[in-house]
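Section: Multi-chain targets

For targets with more than one molecule, the full set of components is provided together so that the structure can be written out for the assembly as a whole rather than chain by chain. Components appear in the order listed by the source. The example entry contains two components.
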Amino acid sequence: MSNQANKVKFLTYPERIRSRLERTGEIVFIDGQHVTPSQIWQFMTEEAPKRFPYAYDTKTYNIVRLSDDVDFVSGIKYNYIELTWRDRMLAARSKGIPLILNEGGGQTRDPYYAAGAIPLRPGAVSTWVREMEDGLDLHQIDLRNTAIMESGRKLITIEACNQIGAHAAISDGVVDVDMLAPFLCLRCSDVAYLVEKHRSSQRSYPLQLIDYPINNQVNKEWAVEYFASNLKRLIASILNITSAGMTEDGLKEEIKLHNKMRRLALDIHELWWSANIPPTNSTDFNNIRIFGNDPCGVSAISAISILEETKQEVHERIKNSIKGAGLTDDPVRLFACGSCVSPNPTVVDRAGGVVVGKDDWLSGLYIEVKENGNPYGNLAKANLSISYEQPIEVRALWTVEQIKKSKADGMIFMHQWGCNYQSAVSRMVADIVKEKAGIPTLVIEVDELDKAEALEQSQNRVESFIEMLR
Amino acid sequence: MIGLDVGSTTAKAAYPEGKFRIVESRNWRELTDGIAPCDIVSTGYFRKSVPHKLAITEITAAAFGAREYFPDAEVIVDIGGQDTKVIDLRNNTFLLNDKCSAGTGAFLEFTAKYLGIQVSELGDLHMRAKKAAQLNSTCGVFAISEMISRMVEGASVEDVVAGMHYSFARRVAKLIPEADRIVLIGGTVKNRGLTAALEEVAGKRFLIPPAPQTVNALGALRYSEERP
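Its structure, encoded as tokens over all components, is:
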């Protein structure tokens, strides 16, 4: 327990894990690339520690660190997918696969994959930027991200949230994409600033704004039709880049596969929540939640296999009463709310807590797109139904339901400085949760988005909250 | 076992025999001389950077420490060097002011340095003020610039110090919920000018323990005793 602040400890995968990993399936990406478990092992134990030492730095405040649950084999695959992000995007692009920036929430990824493209969240752009130079440590990564973010702020505004860093990376040519397609729903109030970044850029990208009818329009025929026409236009624009074709049956097939992915990830959540002992730590659980929404360039069929393996592994852990590594006995269960930023999972685990859910990603897993009939209309209706995009009271009541299902002891609503929408709604969501779920809540504004090291003061609040709940 | 509170300005230790010691943060080792890490419960912003058996946040430490003096405390206001924390013990909530030095001990130090006086003199100067100078309560940097303006206009150092305390008090009072039993802790509370301004702005009397600066160190010690 003595002071180790100046000594960096790096994560290593013990050899005993290797045979277990090698008994799992390979990963297939949408550009046709196959990676065997042996190649994953080689990358994660030999190549990646040299190229991305920051990810292996076990410092608690490291936001971009790998999960230290080395026995959770599925987790190694999620970590592999994360650390190979830039390599894979460059490879995909060289094969003519378009990369589409899809900011703003309110959407599933099926249409992009059906059209043969890879959707990139701003967070994925930041991951790409992190992986651009080999051998950087945690501090150097943090400096690099900050420098890019500042370039965006200088050109547009200091008032936008840190996502301007991802946009600066694109407009400055650090990262190359094929199209920008922000969804104009309320989740991200900075979209206007971020789009503006590209208007003043030296580089020109095709821009397609997807108009999302806001304020609970899901039961209005015009809204579904209008939104469906926006989605149709988005797909047509992607196909225009590739000069490829896509049939409605092809879109329906992709929807079926993505429905299955989302259902599997949700099954894992329900399994996890039912356990007396949390079977994974917060980092691995977050990764499952994100992957269920966004397969990160992995083919849908392969993504389903990974999620099936994960479900099996979680099931085995529950059966054998295995606790996620790094968790304390009987941890305080925290439900996280808000977009883009989350409590640092390692800080939560070390402080005696565990993150049992997060509203934005979790709401995506509940999306069930109808599989028969007009696929555009079905996608539109499903996307307009996302709980997270509903009027605040509806969103909060859905959150209450999830909090009860996940048996959370407390809720933290975290929002990034500059995010006007989430900061405005945070108090209302927290008050409704407090009243209806009967649990303590904490609202925190942070300045951590796209940073590699968490800030002491925000983490201090998270730790204090956990101590209070204990 | 000892309670060790290493904050942004000072380090405080509470020893089991009822003694306390305070040194500058950089000299914290003086407080743990001869004490094994397994006998230290740490708190404060540097709680994880010092040897410890257990590290708890200042918010938990404050709750345990304040109850030693005022068992029926409802709210604790901890004015520290780096931030101000308001802890509502009735419903397990807290608020922190840390985005600006206005409303923190650092602001007082900055002011004292600018005026060429010791922080310990601020309270007496406040008491000698004839009319508190008007200063904003939203930004520490602007407040310093306004102090200069007020002095150029002829305000005395005493009036500027009092104005600065009222500015500080307005900032902190906004965070304090309605309650009857409010405890003030933290080194800044030794400044009687500041506490007088805070009581006037908030319109209520506060409970102040005899050694407000060491409450968190004591809380860390008590925590270790209650939850070994």
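Confidence is low (pLDDT under 50) at residues 1-5 of chain A.
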